[in-house]
Amino acid sequence: MKNLNVGLIGGGFMGKAHSLAYSAMPMFFWPAPAIPVRHTIAEANDQLAAEAARRFGFENSTSDWRRIVEDPRIDVVDIATPNHLHAEIAIAAAQAGKHIICEKPLARTGEESKAMYDAVKDAGIVHMVAFNYRRTPAIALAKKYIEEGAIGRILNFRGTYLQDWSADPNSPLSWRFQKSIAGSGALGDIATHVIDIARYLVGEFNSVNSILSTWIPDRPIQSGGADALGNVRGGDDVPRGEVDVDDEVMTMVRFANGAVGSIEATRNGWGRNNFITFEIHGTEGSIVFNYERRDELQVCFAGDADDRRGFRTIYTGPAHPYGDGLWPIPALGVGYGETKIIEAHDFFQAIAEGTSVSPNFADGYQTALIDDAIVASAEKDAWVDVPRVAELAD
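RE: above sequence
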Protein backbone atom coordinates (compact mmCIF):
# COMPACT_ATOMS: atom_id res chain seq x y z
CA MET A 1 0.00 0.00 0.00
CA LYS A 2 1.70 3.15 -1.25
CA ASN A 3 1.62 6.64 0.24
CA LEU A 4 0.78 9.37 -2.28
CA ASN A 5 1.54 12.98 -1.37
CA VAL A 6 -1.26 15.43 -2.13
CA GLY A 7 -0.85 19.10 -2.90
CA LEU A 8 -4.18 20.89 -2.46
CA ILE A 9 -4.66 24.31 -4.06
CA GLY A 10 -7.52 26.15 -2.40
CA GLY A 11 -8.58 26.14 1.24
CA GLY A 12 -12.25 27.08 1.02
CA PHE A 13 -15.35 24.92 1.26
CA MET A 14 -14.14 22.48 -1.38
CA GLY A 15 -10.71 22.31 0.25
CA LYS A 16 -12.44 21.25 3.44
CA ALA A 17 -14.49 18.59 1.64
CA HIS A 18 -11.43 17.16 -0.14
CA SER A 19 -9.30 17.18 3.02
CA LEU A 20 -12.00 15.30 4.90
CA ALA A 21 -12.12 12.72 2.10
CA TYR A 22 -8.35 12.17 2.16
CA SER A 23 -8.43 11.68 5.91
CA ALA A 24 -11.42 9.34 5.98
CA MET A 25 -11.02 7.32 2.77
CA PRO A 26 -8.75 4.62 4.29
CA MET A 27 -11.12 4.34 7.27
CA PHE A 28 -14.04 3.52 4.97
CA PHE A 29 -12.23 1.54 2.25
CA TRP A 30 -9.69 -0.79 3.83
CA PRO A 31 -7.29 -1.96 2.65
CA ALA A 32 -7.06 1.36 0.83
CA PRO A 33 -5.71 1.39 -2.73
CA ALA A 34 -3.21 4.01 -1.53
CA ILE A 35 -2.85 6.32 1.47
CA PRO A 36 -3.40 10.02 0.69
CA VAL A 37 -0.83 12.07 2.59
CA ARG A 38 -1.89 15.68 3.11
CA HIS A 39 1.48 17.16 2.20
CA THR A 40 1.08 20.81 1.14
CA ILE A 41 -1.81 23.24 0.84
CA ALA A 42 -1.77 26.54 -1.06
CA GLU A 43 -3.87 29.59 -0.30
CA ALA A 44 -3.98 33.24 -1.33
CA ASN A 45 -1.44 34.42 1.25
CA ASP A 46 0.91 32.92 3.83
CA GLN A 47 -1.41 33.54 6.78
CA LEU A 48 -4.42 31.90 5.12
CA ALA A 49 -2.25 29.01 3.93
CA ALA A 50 -0.82 28.35 7.39
CA GLU A 51 -4.30 28.48 8.93
CA ALA A 52 -5.64 26.07 6.28
CA ALA A 53 -2.76 23.67 6.93
CA ARG A 54 -3.56 23.57 10.65
CA ARG A 55 -7.26 23.23 10.07
CA PHE A 56 -7.14 20.57 7.36
CA GLY A 57 -4.15 18.58 8.60
CA PHE A 58 -1.52 19.41 5.98
CA GLU A 59 2.17 19.16 6.77
CA ASN A 60 3.19 22.26 4.80
CA SER A 61 1.67 25.43 3.43
CA THR A 62 2.46 27.99 0.73
CA SER A 63 1.00 31.08 -0.88
CA ASP A 64 2.35 30.09 -4.32
CA TRP A 65 0.61 27.15 -6.01
CA ARG A 66 3.59 26.77 -8.34
CA ARG A 67 5.63 25.42 -5.43
CA ILE A 68 3.21 22.48 -5.25
CA VAL A 69 3.42 21.81 -8.97
CA GLU A 70 7.23 22.03 -8.98
CA ASP A 71 7.77 19.94 -5.82
CA PRO A 72 9.09 16.48 -6.84
CA ARG A 73 7.65 15.01 -3.64
CA ILE A 74 4.07 15.80 -4.70
CA ASP A 75 2.25 12.97 -6.52
CA VAL A 76 -1.26 14.44 -6.78
CA VAL A 77 -2.38 18.01 -7.47
CA ASP A 78 -5.89 18.82 -6.26
CA ILE A 79 -7.41 21.97 -7.79
CA ALA A 80 -10.12 23.49 -5.58
CA THR A 81 -9.89 27.12 -6.71
CA PRO A 82 -12.29 29.46 -8.50
CA ASN A 83 -12.82 28.45 -12.11
CA HIS A 84 -10.55 30.98 -13.83
CA LEU A 85 -7.45 29.35 -12.31
CA HIS A 86 -8.22 25.75 -13.30
CA ALA A 87 -6.65 25.75 -16.74
CA GLU A 88 -3.31 27.36 -15.84
CA ILE A 89 -2.81 25.12 -12.81
CA ALA A 90 -3.90 21.90 -14.50
CA ILE A 91 -1.75 22.43 -17.57
CA ALA A 92 1.30 23.17 -15.42
CA ALA A 93 0.61 20.16 -13.20
CA ALA A 94 0.19 17.85 -16.19
CA GLN A 95 3.45 19.07 -17.70
CA ALA A 96 5.10 18.29 -14.35
CA GLY A 97 3.75 14.73 -14.48
CA LYS A 98 1.35 15.04 -11.54
CA HIS A 99 -1.94 13.17 -11.28
CA ILE A 100 -4.78 15.70 -11.12
CA ILE A 101 -8.22 15.98 -9.61
CA CYS A 102 -10.01 19.23 -10.46
CA GLU A 103 -13.25 20.63 -9.12
CA LYS A 104 -16.12 21.24 -11.52
CA PRO A 105 -16.75 22.83 -13.89
CA LEU A 106 -13.51 21.79 -15.52
CA ALA A 107 -13.05 25.31 -16.92
CA ARG A 108 -14.95 28.41 -17.99
CA THR A 109 -15.33 27.40 -21.65
CA GLY A 110 -14.93 24.52 -24.02
CA GLU A 111 -11.76 26.10 -25.37
CA GLU A 112 -10.11 26.18 -21.93
CA SER A 113 -11.33 22.65 -21.22
CA LYS A 114 -9.78 21.38 -24.45
CA ALA A 115 -6.39 22.83 -23.48
CA MET A 116 -6.60 21.03 -20.13
CA TYR A 117 -7.74 17.79 -21.77
CA ASP A 118 -4.93 17.91 -24.33
CA ALA A 119 -2.36 18.53 -21.56
CA VAL A 120 -3.38 15.52 -19.43
CA LYS A 121 -3.68 13.29 -22.49
CA ASP A 122 -0.17 14.23 -23.61
CA ALA A 123 1.19 13.70 -20.09
CA GLY A 124 -0.34 10.25 -19.65
CA ILE A 125 -1.35 10.90 -16.04
CA VAL A 126 -4.55 9.98 -14.16
CA HIS A 127 -7.06 12.84 -14.24
CA MET A 128 -10.48 13.32 -12.73
CA VAL A 129 -13.13 16.06 -12.62
CA ALA A 130 -15.01 16.16 -9.33
CA PHE A 131 -18.63 15.56 -10.26
CA ASN A 132 -19.11 13.80 -6.94
CA TYR A 133 -22.90 13.54 -6.97
CA ARG A 134 -22.81 10.63 -9.42
CA ARG A 135 -21.10 8.69 -6.61
CA THR A 136 -24.15 8.90 -4.38
CA PRO A 137 -24.96 5.20 -3.83
CA ALA A 138 -28.59 5.64 -4.93
CA ILE A 139 -27.49 7.21 -8.23
CA ALA A 140 -24.99 4.41 -8.79
CA LEU A 141 -27.82 1.96 -8.06
CA ALA A 142 -29.97 3.69 -10.68
CA LYS A 143 -27.11 3.17 -13.14
CA LYS A 144 -27.01 -0.53 -12.23
CA TYR A 145 -30.75 -0.94 -12.85
CA ILE A 146 -30.51 0.87 -16.19
CA GLU A 147 -27.56 -1.26 -17.36
CA GLU A 148 -29.42 -4.43 -16.32
CA GLY A 149 -32.38 -3.36 -18.47
CA ALA A 150 -34.73 -3.15 -15.50
CA ILE A 151 -36.56 -0.12 -16.92
CA GLY A 152 -36.09 -1.03 -20.57
CA ARG A 153 -35.23 1.55 -23.21
CA ILE A 154 -35.01 5.05 -21.75
CA LEU A 155 -37.62 7.43 -23.11
CA ASN A 156 -37.05 10.61 -21.13
CA PHE A 157 -35.04 12.29 -18.39
CA ARG A 158 -36.13 15.25 -16.27
CA GLY A 159 -33.56 16.77 -13.94
CA THR A 160 -33.36 19.76 -11.62
CA TYR A 161 -30.87 21.49 -9.38
CA LEU A 162 -32.69 24.16 -7.39
CA GLN A 163 -31.19 26.36 -4.66
CA ASP A 164 -32.15 29.60 -2.93
CA TRP A 165 -28.85 30.91 -1.54
CA SER A 166 -28.76 33.80 -4.02
CA ALA A 167 -32.48 34.57 -4.18
CA ASP A 168 -32.01 37.59 -1.90
CA PRO A 169 -30.88 40.61 -3.99
CA ASN A 170 -28.73 41.72 -1.04
CA SER A 171 -26.65 38.54 -0.94
CA PRO A 172 -23.08 39.42 -1.93
CA LEU A 173 -21.38 39.59 -5.30
CA SER A 174 -19.51 36.31 -4.97
CA TRP A 175 -17.03 35.40 -7.72
CA ARG A 176 -19.74 33.01 -8.86
CA PHE A 177 -21.61 36.00 -10.30
CA GLN A 178 -18.66 37.27 -12.33
CA LYS A 179 -18.16 35.90 -15.82
CA SER A 180 -14.43 36.65 -15.89
CA ILE A 181 -13.93 34.29 -12.94
CA ALA A 182 -16.80 31.78 -13.10
CA GLY A 183 -17.43 31.63 -16.84
CA SER A 184 -21.16 31.23 -16.30
CA GLY A 185 -23.63 31.32 -13.43
CA ALA A 186 -26.12 28.63 -12.46
CA LEU A 187 -25.17 26.83 -15.68
CA GLY A 188 -21.57 26.09 -14.77
CA ASP A 189 -22.02 26.13 -11.01
CA ILE A 190 -24.88 23.68 -10.53
CA ALA A 191 -26.51 22.67 -13.84
CA THR A 192 -23.29 20.89 -14.78
CA HIS A 193 -23.94 18.38 -12.00
CA VAL A 194 -27.31 17.46 -13.54
CA ILE A 195 -25.75 17.37 -17.00
CA ASP A 196 -23.13 14.94 -15.67
CA ILE A 197 -25.83 12.76 -14.07
CA ALA A 198 -27.81 12.77 -17.33
CA ARG A 199 -24.72 11.74 -19.33
CA TYR A 200 -23.90 9.05 -16.74
CA LEU A 201 -27.39 7.54 -16.71
CA VAL A 202 -28.82 8.23 -20.17
CA GLY A 203 -25.96 9.03 -22.56
CA GLU A 204 -24.54 11.77 -24.73
CA PHE A 205 -26.39 14.92 -25.74
CA ASN A 206 -27.13 15.50 -29.44
CA SER A 207 -28.70 18.95 -29.21
CA VAL A 208 -30.17 21.50 -26.78
CA ASN A 209 -32.77 24.27 -26.84
CA SER A 210 -32.24 26.62 -23.93
CA ILE A 211 -33.21 29.72 -21.98
CA LEU A 212 -30.80 31.61 -19.70
CA SER A 213 -32.15 34.25 -17.29
CA THR A 214 -30.52 36.79 -14.99
CA TRP A 215 -33.03 37.91 -12.35
CA ILE A 216 -30.84 40.15 -10.19
CA PRO A 217 -28.64 42.49 -12.26
CA ASP A 218 -26.38 43.75 -9.45
CA ARG A 219 -25.36 42.75 -5.93
CA PRO A 220 -23.49 44.23 -2.94
CA ILE A 221 -19.73 44.02 -3.39
CA GLN A 222 -18.44 41.70 -0.68
CA SER A 223 -15.46 42.54 1.50
CA GLY A 224 -12.75 39.95 2.10
CA GLY A 225 -11.60 37.15 -0.13
CA ALA A 226 -13.75 34.30 1.17
CA ASP A 227 -16.72 33.18 -0.90
CA ALA A 228 -19.60 34.36 1.29
CA LEU A 229 -22.35 32.81 -0.86
CA GLY A 230 -25.74 33.67 0.66
CA ASN A 231 -24.67 33.59 4.28
CA VAL A 232 -24.34 37.37 4.69
CA ARG A 233 -26.38 40.33 3.51
CA GLY A 234 -25.31 43.73 2.30
CA GLY A 235 -27.06 46.86 3.51
CA ASP A 236 -28.51 49.63 1.40
CA ASP A 237 -25.32 51.68 1.74
CA VAL A 238 -22.99 48.96 0.35
CA PRO A 239 -21.65 49.58 -3.18
CA ARG A 240 -23.08 47.20 -5.76
CA GLY A 241 -21.47 45.50 -8.72
CA GLU A 242 -22.84 44.06 -11.95
CA VAL A 243 -23.93 40.44 -12.27
CA ASP A 244 -22.97 39.30 -15.78
CA VAL A 245 -23.87 35.59 -15.59
CA ASP A 246 -27.11 33.63 -15.55
CA ASP A 247 -29.20 33.06 -12.43
CA GLU A 248 -31.28 30.33 -14.05
CA VAL A 249 -31.02 27.89 -16.94
CA MET A 250 -33.70 25.77 -18.56
CA THR A 251 -32.96 23.49 -21.48
CA MET A 252 -34.60 20.78 -23.50
CA VAL A 253 -32.34 17.93 -24.55
CA ARG A 254 -32.23 15.43 -27.39
CA PHE A 255 -30.01 12.48 -26.49
CA ALA A 256 -27.97 10.47 -28.98
CA ASN A 257 -29.93 7.29 -28.15
CA GLY A 258 -33.26 8.89 -29.07
CA ALA A 259 -34.39 9.79 -25.56
CA VAL A 260 -35.57 13.32 -24.79
CA GLY A 261 -35.26 15.37 -21.63
CA SER A 262 -35.22 18.64 -19.78
CA ILE A 263 -32.89 20.19 -17.23
CA GLU A 264 -33.57 23.17 -14.97
CA ALA A 265 -31.18 24.85 -12.54
CA THR A 266 -31.60 27.98 -10.48
CA ARG A 267 -30.00 29.61 -7.45
CA ASN A 268 -33.11 31.77 -6.95
CA GLY A 269 -35.69 29.18 -5.90
CA TRP A 270 -36.91 30.21 -2.43
CA GLY A 271 -37.34 27.18 -0.19
CA ARG A 272 -35.00 24.95 -2.18
CA ASN A 273 -31.69 24.08 -0.54
CA ASN A 274 -29.82 21.44 -2.53
CA PHE A 275 -32.71 20.08 -4.56
CA ILE A 276 -31.04 17.78 -7.09
CA THR A 277 -33.65 15.51 -8.63
CA PHE A 278 -34.17 13.32 -11.64
CA GLU A 279 -36.98 11.20 -13.00
CA ILE A 280 -36.30 8.69 -15.73
CA HIS A 281 -39.03 6.85 -17.64
CA GLY A 282 -38.32 3.75 -19.67
CA THR A 283 -40.38 1.26 -21.59
CA GLU A 284 -40.30 -1.13 -18.61
CA GLY A 285 -40.33 1.17 -15.60
CA SER A 286 -39.31 4.43 -13.95
CA ILE A 287 -36.70 5.70 -11.49
CA VAL A 288 -36.98 8.79 -9.27
CA PHE A 289 -34.29 10.38 -7.07
CA ASN A 290 -34.13 13.39 -4.76
CA TYR A 291 -30.71 14.25 -3.30
CA GLU A 292 -32.28 15.80 -0.21
CA ARG A 293 -33.38 12.21 0.56
CA ARG A 294 -30.16 10.74 -0.73
CA ASP A 295 -30.45 7.30 0.93
CA GLU A 296 -33.60 6.62 -1.09
CA LEU A 297 -34.28 5.53 -4.65
CA GLN A 298 -37.84 5.21 -5.89
CA VAL A 299 -38.52 2.63 -8.59
CA CYS A 300 -41.55 1.32 -10.44
CA PHE A 301 -41.32 -1.73 -12.69
CA ALA A 302 -43.89 -2.45 -15.39
CA GLY A 303 -43.56 -6.18 -14.72
CA ASP A 304 -45.13 -5.88 -11.29
CA ALA A 305 -48.64 -7.27 -10.88
CA ASP A 306 -51.43 -4.82 -11.64
CA ASP A 307 -52.65 -4.82 -8.06
CA ARG A 308 -49.26 -3.77 -6.62
CA ARG A 309 -47.70 -1.65 -9.33
CA GLY A 310 -46.45 1.72 -8.11
CA PHE A 311 -43.38 3.40 -6.78
CA ARG A 312 -41.48 1.59 -4.04
CA THR A 313 -38.65 3.07 -1.99
CA ILE A 314 -35.31 1.30 -1.78
CA TYR A 315 -33.02 2.45 1.05
CA THR A 316 -29.40 2.06 0.02
CA GLY A 317 -27.06 0.07 2.21
CA PRO A 318 -24.53 -2.79 2.19
CA ALA A 319 -26.22 -4.62 -0.70
CA HIS A 320 -25.84 -1.66 -3.03
CA PRO A 321 -22.96 0.16 -4.81
CA TYR A 322 -20.17 1.20 -2.40
CA GLY A 323 -22.13 -0.45 0.43
CA ASP A 324 -19.22 -2.55 1.67
CA GLY A 325 -17.20 0.56 2.45
CA LEU A 326 -19.88 2.72 4.06
CA TRP A 327 -22.33 1.97 6.87
CA PRO A 328 -23.49 -1.48 8.07
CA ILE A 329 -27.27 -1.03 7.70
CA PRO A 330 -29.48 0.67 5.09
CA ALA A 331 -30.66 4.27 5.65
CA LEU A 332 -28.14 4.94 8.41
CA GLY A 333 -27.28 8.12 6.54
CA VAL A 334 -25.10 9.05 3.60
CA GLY A 335 -23.98 12.66 3.25
CA TYR A 336 -22.02 14.95 0.98
CA GLY A 337 -18.82 13.89 2.70
CA GLU A 338 -19.34 10.25 1.80
CA THR A 339 -19.65 11.09 -1.90
CA LYS A 340 -16.27 12.83 -1.66
CA ILE A 341 -14.77 9.86 0.20
CA ILE A 342 -15.96 7.51 -2.55
CA GLU A 343 -14.60 9.92 -5.16
CA ALA A 344 -11.20 9.91 -3.46
CA HIS A 345 -11.21 6.11 -3.31
CA ASP A 346 -11.92 5.71 -7.01
CA PHE A 347 -9.33 8.34 -7.94
CA PHE A 348 -6.56 6.78 -5.84
CA GLN A 349 -7.50 3.30 -7.00
CA ALA A 350 -7.00 4.42 -10.61
CA ILE A 351 -3.59 5.85 -9.72
CA ALA A 352 -2.57 2.68 -7.88
CA GLU A 353 -3.72 0.40 -10.70
CA GLY A 354 -2.60 2.62 -13.57
CA THR A 355 -6.11 2.79 -15.02
CA SER A 356 -8.45 5.61 -16.01
CA VAL A 357 -11.27 6.94 -13.86
CA SER A 358 -14.58 8.54 -14.72
CA PRO A 359 -15.59 11.33 -14.88
CA ASN A 360 -12.24 12.48 -16.22
CA PHE A 361 -11.10 15.51 -18.20
CA ALA A 362 -12.70 14.09 -21.36
CA ASP A 363 -16.03 14.13 -19.50
CA GLY A 364 -15.34 17.62 -18.16
CA TYR A 365 -14.52 18.81 -21.68
CA GLN A 366 -17.71 17.24 -23.05
CA THR A 367 -19.76 18.94 -20.34
CA ALA A 368 -18.12 22.26 -21.24
CA LEU A 369 -19.13 21.73 -24.88
CA ILE A 370 -22.70 21.14 -23.71
CA ASP A 371 -22.52 24.36 -21.66
CA ASP A 372 -21.26 26.29 -24.69
CA ALA A 373 -24.11 24.88 -26.78
CA ILE A 374 -26.66 25.90 -24.11
CA VAL A 375 -25.31 29.46 -24.14
CA ALA A 376 -25.37 29.55 -27.95
CA SER A 377 -28.91 28.17 -28.01
CA ALA A 378 -30.13 30.83 -25.58
CA GLU A 379 -28.54 33.56 -27.68
CA LYS A 380 -30.01 32.20 -30.94
CA ASP A 381 -33.34 31.08 -29.45
CA ALA A 382 -32.97 27.84 -31.39
CA TRP A 383 -31.86 24.23 -31.21
CA VAL A 384 -28.05 23.89 -31.24
CA ASP A 385 -26.10 20.70 -31.90
CA VAL A 386 -23.57 19.58 -29.31
CA PRO A 387 -20.06 18.68 -30.62
CA ARG A 388 -18.63 15.40 -29.40
CA VAL A 389 -15.21 14.79 -27.89
CA ALA A 390 -13.60 12.21 -30.17
CA GLU A 391 -12.72 9.93 -27.25
CA LEU A 392 -16.39 9.76 -26.27
CA ALA A 393 -17.84 9.28 -29.77
CA ASP A 394 -20.05 6.26 -30.32
